[in-house]
Amino acid sequence: MDFGKLFELVVAASLINNFVFTRFLGLCIFFGVSRKMETAVGMSMTFTAVMVVSAALSWIVFTSVMIENSLYPGSPDLTFLKIIIFIGIVAAFVQSADTIMKKVSPTLYYKLGVYLALITTNCIILAVPLINAGEGYTFLESMAFGLGSGLGFALAMIIMASIREKLELANVPAPFKGLPISFIIAGLIALAFTGFSGLITL
Amino acid sequence: MFDIQITKIITDILHIIQVFDINQIPLPLIGVGAGVEAKEYVDIKGTLIFAAVFLIGISAIFGLGLAFAAKKFSVKEDPRVDEVSEHLAHAHCGACGYAGCRQYAEAVVMNPDVAPNLCTPGGSASAEAVAKICGKVMEETEPKIARVLCQGDRSRSARRFKYEGIMDCKAAILASGGDKACIYGCLGYGTCFRACPFSAISMSNDSLPMIDPAKCTACGICAQACPTKVIEILPMVKEVLVRCHSKDKGAASKKNCQTACISCGICVKVCPYNAATVDNNLATINIDKCRVCGLCAAKCPTNAIMDYIPRRSNATITEKCIGCHKCAKICPVNAPSGELKKRHAVDEEKCIGCGICTSNCPVLAITGTINYPEVAEAFKAKKAAMAKAKAEAAKAKEQTTSA
Description:
Order of helices and strands of chain A: HHHHHHHH
Distance between the termini of chain A: 18 Å
Largest sheet of chain A: none
Number of helices of chain A: 8
Helix content of chain A: over 70%
Helix content of chain B: 25-40%
Strand content of chain B: 5-15%
Order of helices and strands of chain B: HHHHHEHHEEHEEHHEEHEEHEEHEH
Structural class of chain A: mainly alpha
Distance between the termini of chain B: 108 Å
Number of helices of chain B: 14
Oligomer: heterodimer
Structural class of chain B: alpha+beta
Shape of chain A: globular
């Protein structure tokens, strides 16, 4: 096993190709939940966990059924169905996680349960399995990519939440109050994140 | 006509399927490129069947799995929690002291010590419903409202220095207690205005928060947010309040603010119900004793006492008047006048509608004031009690005579 490659994947997914700042995905949750540090941290934790597990589940289904000749010799190519299937997998996983968590660990449920429902239809969650399928990653690589993406999202959320908490008190010109100034700040952080682009050459 | 067209299309499609093998249709080249390789031959029929089986199979697995999880990991929840939750205001304001409406609903159902009337935005309607569902005894919820107990806006109050920082009261108070000369008053940077979840607070042009009584739910978030604690949650019916928190000596207060309480003690003298007191250079009105007559507000030399009732209805003297002249004697503004044993009249200009005459009239001849219904009821009760006592006395007398 090549741990160097896995580490590279984590770094690449979290810093270089940060989903929020480089690929501009998941912006609805990014702006919706980053107003308070507490919710931002809760959301990031749930997000990372769901991302890793859904990446693994999607990889299993994708490689064992959907690729040509994978289920049995001559089984047809179903890769054109990947968007629908991945959404279904993520939704089913999130829903069952919600049910099981409520029973097994109510305290965790009250902390993170609110965010679970929001995650189901998030674009980053869907993008991770799609990219995994497109790049042809192995099982461990897929999970590493999911973990890296989750960490990158958490980093973005925490940076944004800490800025926006201070922004509450700042003297922002009236037309920029609320979301507009947040978009400007996100743009500035995205500019800063381009500095990572030469970190690793894959 | 339309039906014929549809049936024609369907028969056409069926015909095509019957005549042609679907796999014989030439593949379009759309979608090829950008990483997708063109294939010489695709088994469309096989793919369709396999895709259908796969989709049905995977959805069946998910569906059964979820159904199994829902059954196996089902959490028994009291159905009353949902019912209670429906009756709450769902503002998630936290006025009840719980994290959200759901948490309060759970607490109120599970814990017998949690009162059913904690949802202030929901008001008495929600409290009643919650009490009914939980089988709890509901205490009467008095409608309350947030009151800003300061009138020192920018034009009326003096400033010690020019504050040029973050425009928020919590930040301004860090600069040696704020820029206002009076350290007890409203700073006017709108922390409460931003904190209010119901947008019931607006800032006046002179930076004083104004509360919209129609929108305010008395959740208390503004009172918590205010760093000088100048906002208080008070019963809605108590509409005469000392709108000043200054504990400075009279002269200092007057220098700092035009509408400050200078602790002159006039309110203490004029109050007919002994509700006003002056402690620590500040007048306070005991809201339990206050009968909202508005006399202190009318007499206050600096207008520090505010009467929230804009205009009280004047007193009028009816034909019942026996001309005892009592009203003229007790009236604080000398509005009633008239000769003894003749019907008196009230000077509309002078009357402030305090209702003191109404409550003191021996024959209930004065109407129109704010306290008339209350006084009339008390009068009736007194009369009934007296009649009852008289009847009892007569009965007792009868018994003694017969014995």
